[in-house]
């Protein structure tokens, strides 16, 4: 049976989220900036039309921004994450099988609904997500995940498709012409460097890649490339992942809003980062057997003394307890810290991850065990309070309560948390 896969992708996701509660921003040039308001990570269609590339440092485009009245917003990850979960919940109502691929993309499998008109369903999806969440989406449909991803590219870039492209409705000659008009670098998993190598072999368009011999490309590249070609040829090789695989490691890090010199401030930041990492660990019902820490000075300031240390520490027993993980991180930090350096970034890592229910007990371990019912209840309460009242509401006391923290990220133009904070709810006046 031929599969029927749809990829639904939110258009310019971060920008679209900013516009949900600011309808006055519709049609205006907007960019969203990275951590510490450093560089452009999202652009509205109006900004793309001006030729602004992704990753451009904000300070380099301030003159252009003044000239064209480009509005810049700090990344509001709380808002984006909440709206993403709402979009995915809406999409899950349309198909029996769903894979949440990223914060703004989801695969839907309609194979078990062979008589469904997917073009009409795609339009219904677009209308419902726009009405219920407020963001625009594009829908691509094909017989494999790779073709669905390619169809989504067509739906998004070519207005005549009205936001929905179902490749299976096209005659073979039309598909050939369409794929011949798309550069090979637009194929899922084909990066810029790979596209350059393929061009040396005369493979420049998607049609060229589809016509290639998958066995020969496997010999020159990898099994992944062979799989991509087979998918373009209509052979389904990539299954939907309805349950995301557990992370093999968890990392939490940030660049500081201002350089940090003291061990005390580094410790405060790492405790805060560990709180977030431990919450992610518990969310996937895991435990960590090793904790890592790293510090960074500014590699681009050659006048500064450079120091980029990292180290890990095994735990006496695998744990998901924030206090246990934080204590280990502080031990590593004390070992790494050197006075006199201008630190600009730090991070924590949770390694040697395993499932919580298969933890092997340690007879003489003095740290709280992941199976200690009181500690388990405490961590569950911690997570519930933070989920209900916002991240950072409750945490380890040593993480500090001083606000604002000097090392915290710069977010000079961040919008309110419209959907997750009672104080930031939008006010509607009749």
TrEMBL record:
GO molecular function, one term: damaged DNA binding
Keyword DNA repair tagged: yes
Cellular component terms per the entry's GO annotation: cytosol
Pfam families documented for this protein: DNA_pol_lambd_f (PF10391), DUF4113 (PF13438), IMS (PF00817), IMS_C (PF11799)
Assigned keywords, A-Z: DNA damage, DNA repair, SOS mutagenesis, SOS response
InterPro entries: DNA/RNA_pol_sf, DNA_pol_lambd_fingers_domain, DNA_pol_Y-fam_little_finger, DNA_polymerase-Y, DUF4113, Rev_trsase/Diguanyl_cyclase, UmuC
SUPFAM superfamilies, per the entry: DNA/RNA polymerases
Keyword Oxidoreductase assigned: no
GO biological process per UniProt: DNA repair; error-prone translesion synthesis; SOS response
Protein family membership: Belongs to the DNA polymerase type-Y family.
Alphabetical list of PANTHER family matching this protein: DNA REPAIR POLYMERASE UMUC / TRANSFERASE FAMILY MEMBER, PROTEIN UMUC
UniProt-listed NCBIfam families: PRK03609.1
Entry protein name: DNA polymerase V subunit UmuC
